[in-house]
Amino acid sequence: MARSRSENYEDIQLGILTNAARLFATQGYERSSIGDLAEACKLSRGALYHYFQSKDAILYAMLETHVRGMLKRLNDAVALTRGAFEQLAALVEAAVEYNSRSRNEQIILLNDLQSLGEREQKVIKGLERQIVDLVAQVLARVDTRGKITPSTRKVYTMALLGTINYTYTWYDPQGSVKPKQYARMATDLFLNGFLAASEIAPDRSIAPLRRGGAGRR
Predict the structure, then answer these.
(1) 76, 90, 191, 205: which is deepest, by most CB within 10 A?
(2) Shortest CA distance to 108 belongs to which of 40, 19, 41, 22?
(3) How many domains does one find in the chain?
């Protein structure tokens, strides 16, 4: 006789994914056993298998939920904003805030996606491509100088995404620079450059770069 679902089945599943993400991000997916998962989730192995068929199933559910959630959050941010520049700012802010709340999942996505089967990887990568396409479309609307060409489209897009997605290696959302502020800094840096809004020292001691050598007159 099949075991019936409890009323809080989905909540328990979510709790398993959260605890598993913490374990995988800290210990590594390949080095984590079902026993480790049961201990981290405070469940028996039998109870764990009631909610997920395998460790691979937990990894897939975790990453699919994470990436699909990111895609929805970015689509919502763009849809609720008018103006190309405002859309880009909203998109970056949404991505930074989303990643700041799901650091463990981001670590696992970047380090352990290859541990999934080919079919599962294809689903995750398909969602990732939708995110890349969305960012590229918003950047194209911002591009008033024609910098984005077929050969540079992916480079510009991935450069921006790299600024957002690799913050887990160093950024502390609880530090002095909060997610919204970091998002504004990242957007401004990407669009305007580091020195664009500031003036060079009054004595002009920093010579401009010229062809033939740095500072050569």
Answers:
(1) 90
(2) 22
(3) 1
Does residue 80 belong to any structural domain of this protein?
yes
DSSP assignment string, the chain: -PPPPPTTHHHHHHHHHHHHHHHHHHH-TTT--HHHHHHHHT--HHHHHHH-SSHHHHHHHHHHHHHHHHHHHHHHHHHT--SHHHHHHHHHHHHHHHHHH-HHHHHHHHHHGGGS-HHHHHHHHHHHHHHHHHHHHHHHHH-SS----TTTHHHHHHHHHHHHHTGGGT--TTSSS-HHHHHHHHHHHHHH-SSTTS---TT--SPPEETTEET--
pTM: 0.83
Report the CATH number that the domain containing residue 88 is assigned in CATH. 1.10.357.10
Q: Is residue 92 part of a domain?
A: yes
Domain containing 72: what range? 55-192
Tokens of 103: 């650091």
